[in-house]
Amino acid sequence: MALVLIGFMGAGKSTVATELASRRAADPLDSDALLEARFGHSVAREFELHGEQAFRAAEEELVCGLLGGAGTREVIALGGGSILSERVRDALSGHVTVLIEVDPDVAWERVRAADDGSERPLARDREAFDALYAQRRELYEQTADTVLVWAQSASGSYPVFVGRGLLDSARLETVWPLDRSVSRPFCVSDTTVAALYAKRAGPFQGTVEIAPGESSKTLASAELVWSALVEAGMTRADHVVALGGGVVGDLAGFCAATYQRGVPVVHVPTTLVAQVDSAYGGKTGVDLPQAKNYVGAYHQPAGVLVDPDTLATLPAHEHAAGWAEVVKTALIAGGELWERIAADETLDERTILACVRTKLGVVAEDERDGGRRQALNLGHTVAHAIETVTGYARYRHGEAVGLGLLAALRLSEQGDLREIVRSILRAHELPVTLGPDIGIEDLIVATRRDKKRTGAQVPFVLVSEPGDVRTGCEIGEHELRGALRELCVS
Fold it and tell me: pLDDT digit string (tens) for 194-212?
């Protein structure tokens, strides 16, 4: 099974193929480049000399030949129109086909700004370009096994693969972002997830298992992981695999960032919270008794591999808790994603992908929480205080985030929107009130210790409307106390 990249012109298939092939110690193959070498001139010139029909026939012959003889380590980038051929689509069935998604505006800008002297024969008119994009989009989605979103940040980039059945051993080996024959994988997981998926995601040089739950996200657990990696013989040339949910990802990422001053980490998220939020962006860390996520580091992953099929084994209460992060992301994104969530549509790959794109877009603008990325903390200031005051044992992270969203919407003076979110949370059997034994004053003290505080005030994220959130907002103690009191009585 080769890794075959498909997608519209300007998606960056050739660039991504080169990057992925280098990670697999292989040479990339590009069907357009191979055709130009065969023609002795550009694709545009071939269109002029013999027309599109003749070009498609030559393309079909070459691509089917490539796919018929492709080896397991090869990475092949196909021309944007190659999948129009039924023969090509049939030949793809023996390989892992990955759709490289691209926004049409971005694709147009890339195609028109190309400085390689080439001209795309089907990119001379913007209206026709957009129509062609719309015409092919459904076929791309139907043909692909997996979707690749390429994550960008100031400190580097990495691939995010999303596809059902990705943990099938043959497919997983094809998309693994590092060469496992050179960099050995060492897995960190919890006992529940390891029993379900460690064999499927492996083989691993060693597996370190922790107890499930937030109580394992501590410096003591980090020391256990570091020591286990030493005993297993892990070196700086090897990499950590974070197999599990948000706790595993945060802990394993932190251990990878600090083990021998830093080794790569590959995230394989198995919970909804991790698949839509925590596996991306490079934030790692552990909790202290006084405050959540107080010790950590930024450490971008080498790659993220998302198999939505793993959600089938997620307990109902854990799946529900993940919905709070989906709602948070939808409030930040607005538009189509918010409309789907407000209508409480069934979760599918489209929703997961939309959440991934939203988070990656924010992180690309602001990796280190200097501005735009603070929007991702919507609802989290109060949520972290709730978790801290209750000893990280009473509320799951997603449950606390749901409560935090209700507080943030009250502080935003968005009563109608708060009721919509409250209805969504209740529909998923998430808490919408605080326990009567939780002290409001204790919560206020905990918010003052929030790690986002840089001065006298803790900055809050408020919502003007879905798709329009404001960061760095100062909230008086009286207003905060009122929002928390409403959680206790609503």
Answer: 999 999 999 999 999 999 9
